[in-house]
Amino acid sequence: MEVRITPDLEAKLARLANERGRDTQALVQEAIEKFVDYDEWFLREVEKGLSAADRGELINHEDIGKLINRRYPG
Predict the structure, then answer these.
(1) 8 Å CB contact between 15 and 27
(2) Residue 74, pLDDT score
(3) Is 8 left (phi over 0), alpha (psi -120 to 50) or beta?
(4) DSSP 21
(5) What is the average pLDDT across 31-55?
(6) Domain extents for the chain?
(7) Closest CA to 31 of 3, 63, 57, 64
């Protein structure tokens, strides 16, 4: 597979690879793997949420507000 990237992105990639002591190919491979893994995880989580909603497992507005306030006080 061949992927074309802009010269600006290629320069950033080269800089990052150099800073990490890795080659650009390895860095690109890692980035693609992370993107694909995250996308797969996200879609699974959305499906779980939709399935829960279909079963009527919902959280009311007040409970969401309490949850947000506990996680992010202030």
Answers:
(1) no
(2) 82
(3) alpha
(4) T
(5) 97
(6) 7-71
(7) 3
